[in-house]
Amino acid sequence: MATAVQTVERENYLNANYGIKSWLLTTDHKRIAMLYLISITAMFWIGGFFAMMIRLELLTPAGDLVSSDTYNKLFTMHGIVMVFFFLIPSVPAVLGNFLIPLMVGAKDLAFPRVNLLSWYLYMAGGITALTAMVMGGVDTGWTFYTPFSTTYSNTHVIGAAVGIFIAGFSSILTGLNFIITIHRMRAPGMTWRRLPLFCWSNYAAALIMVLGTPVIAITLLLVAFERAFHIGVFNPQLGGDPLLFQHLFWFYSHPAVYIMILPGMGVISEIVTCFSRKRVFGYEFVALASIAIAVLGFLVWAHHMFVAGISVYAALVFSLLSYLVAIPSAVKVFNWTATMYKGSIRYNTPMLYAFGFIGLFTVGGLTGVFLASLGIDVHVTDTYFVVAHFHYVMVGGMVMAYMAGLHFWWPKMSGRMYPEGWAKLSALLVFVGFNTTFFPQFILGYMGSPRRYHAYPPEFQVLNVLSTAGSSILAVGYVLPMIYFLWSLRYGEPAPPNPWNAVGLEWMTSSPPPTHNFDETPVVTWEAYDYENQPQEEVTIGH
Amino acid sequence: MWKNFPLFPERASALAWQVDGLYFLLVAVSAFFTLLIFALIFFFAVKYRRSVHPHPVQIEGSLPLELAWTLIPLGISMVFFAWGSLIYFQEARPPKDAMEVYAVAKQWMWKFEYEGGQRDINQLHLPVGRDVKMIMSSQDVIHSFYVPAFRIKADVLPGRFTTTWFRPTKAGTYHLFCAEYCGTDHSGMIGQVIVMEPAAYQAWMSGGSSTGTLAANGQQLFQELGCSTCHRFDTQGRGPNLTGVFGRPVLLEDGRTVVADENYLRESILSPGAKIVSGFKPIMPTFQGQVSEENLMALVAYVKSLAQPQGKAAGGNEAAAQGTSNTQ
């Protein structure tokens, strides 16, 4: 305990200076990560509130809790908030911001002030979008399909589009910062082959952010222009083409799925190795799979359009490529599983969340294969099958990974341990609640229940009730960590520098780290995940 | 029990079994891999837990294993790819002799018009055992024609025709859903597909009040809008003779050749300057905004009927049209 107390009293990035100004004008990547943590958590609860309203409405077949216009706004705002303001920034902007400089042995990201600017852009975008929602909302679906969004919707489409447009620049700048930091600021000896897989996967995601985000930005700008000035780009009555919008939208928004999942995969690679005390199985394959996903991810967008009226030959090509992009994901799952083989496994909360990730991501990935199959997709696209599939990937996958990472690095970020018992309970509740919520939706989808329906035929009710019941368990699973993380800030046990006895440079500095990260620039002489040479001491803290 | 808790929608089309067959196989293979991963994780987590296995054995990786779990899933997925594509290709190619139903989607209703001129709103009456081709267009936003019992879905777009086809195999009433979000009453844009035995279907068809076949209505419009003054049934007209044009390749002024399908006819009416037939001048005025979706469909049905000398749809009026061309 003596060392732990000393750790807390030592100067660190949290107590280096005080006052609101020292936070709002900080250029410390760790403080910016905390700013992001607070803001995306707020967004998560706003998006979660919309989700709960949707689930409550769907408890009965009739549209009786809210009006159909309100319902349409609820699922639209749930999608916009969760995709653009929670999932896309989640792991990169919070954990990536905090950890990438620490993991490569740098003092900060390459452009600390640009990093702060990216948080302000995120906030400006977020506030713009939320203002549009408070003023009456938007009802186009997060997909903004034309010509509905450009001509027929009577809601605040432009406000929401401008919010996403602004937040897009935050994403681009964060991506640039990551790419340049990983290229230029690695500590001596930190070669590409020794780079933690978390950095590899964030690097891959950063490539997509930089290359893909401009496309969604210009697309939404065109939507706003067509709406405001009636220039004919997407509306056929003005000489436009509604499918052009879908091509442009998915050209970003499909790769964006990989922006969301790749960083999560990186988290899982760190955790599975640590709690198995093993080198990752097939390091090169896991690292290159990230790059393969990022590259192939750009070539599959039209699989969202198999029934939209595209040519059969185009559909054929996009179907084939969609199968190919599934392969590197499968490779990762097999490698994580193999990493556990002959390991020495501990069941701490991050590992439990990681188990959940691997299982749910497997289901999400395999049901993606159903959707890549042209004959099946015609039947199940635009039904609850799709809703279930992408929630398995985005919530079962990404949010699980985010929670795993938050627990794993919480001692490093806050300098405190979270209560392990409560945390294990939350992991269990999230897993059970998630499956109860979303598994029935696969069946609903194959039964033919279309998505975005405010009212539905009575034969779909049983499965909907099950889904709503599950969502309330899931909600408890998410509220718990919120409470005990806050509790731990004051009452948690002080965290030692390396509570998990993990390898990785971020564990070689104090918890929380000093503002300059390392007292001396580390020199790396060992391979990645070198658990062989890490002493086997049992850690007593945090059980 | 499963009657009250079904896992699949009814199978009421020739294709439904094919789609379900592929689905079952996918479920089986996915269940196998999911259980494999779950079982391995569980087994490793128990067998190699810290308390009984304190010393991990470091393994770099294994190229043969990496190749195996790259190539085996790749091979399996290629089977799914091929099978899924075969189904899709069947869905994309309607049989030549399919009966045609025209559909106009708008916020928030479905309007159907049969070859005989009968009309339906939010109900689609079909006979068992006939191939049915849907020719669809939207008056406003994108909608999607979805009949789960047929395992068929096709988006309905403004500004163009999209098509799909199916063969109902079982009499009954099935859900018709709009599957593409289209605004306020999206979930109210539903209807019924009523599949009837042929005899009952005939009775229903003759019972409806019809103002002449769709093609005949089209022919009347063809006269009223003045199309017939230029598109004459000889070689003297200022516009091309439309007899036999449908379904054939057309040589354009710029040297391209296009097949005269429904979308070509539509475009030629609404944006006549887009594709000028070789040997003609771009003198035709646009009919954008003057012809409703329904009338457009009637005109297309009429021009299509000119391609079929047996008078598939236009019936008696066909003879009149022939007569007109003979006298000139």
Low-confidence stretches of chain A: 1-8, 538-543
Q: What structural class do helix, strand and pairing data of chain A support?
A: mainly alpha
Instruction: Predict the CATH topology of chain A.
Output: Cytochrome C Oxidase, Chain A
State the separation between the terminal residues of chain A, measured CA to CA.
15 Å
Strand order across the largest sheet of chain B: 3-2-1-5-8
End-to-end span of chain B in angstroms?
A: 71 Å
CATH level 1 class label of the largest domain in chain B: Mainly Beta
| Sheet having the most strands of chain A | none
Q: What spatial form of chain A do the alpha-carbon principal axes imply?
A: globular
Quaternary form = heterodimer
Uncertain runs of chain B with pLDDT below 50, 5 residues or more?
Answer: 310-328
The level-1 CATH class of chain A = Mainly Alpha
Q: What would the CATH topology of the largest domain in chain B be?
A: Immunoglobulin-like
The CATH architecture assignment of chain A turns out to be Up-down Bundle
Nearest-integer average pLDDT of chain B: 86
How many individual β-strands of chain A? 0
Task: Tell me the total number of β-strands of chain B.
Answer: 12
Task: Give the SSE string of chain B.
Answer: HHEEEEEEEEEEHHHEEHHH
Question: How would you state the average pLDDT of chain A, rounded?
Answer: 92
Treating each run of at least 4 consecutive H or I residues as one helix, how many helices of chain A?
17
Write a structural description:
The complex is a heterodimer of chains A (543) and B (328). With 543 residues, chain A is mostly helical. Chain A has a single domain, classed as Cytochrome C Oxidase, Chain A. Chain A has 17 helices and no strands. The two termini of chain A are 15 Å apart. The N terminus and C terminus of chain A are likely disordered. Chain B is of the alpha+beta class. Chain B has 2 domains: 210 residues, Sandwich (Immunoglobulin-like), CATH 2.60.40; 114 residues, Orthogonal Bundle (Cytochrome Bc1 Complex, Chain D, domain 2), CATH 1.10.760. Helices cover 37% and strands 19% of the residues of chain B. Chain B has a 5-stranded mixed β-sheet with strand order 3-2-1-5-8, covered by helices on one side. Chain B has a 5-stranded mixed β-sheet with strand order 4-10-9-6-7. The longest helix of chain B is centred in the N-terminal third of the chain and has 32 residues. Classes of the chains: A mainly alpha (543), B alpha+beta (328).
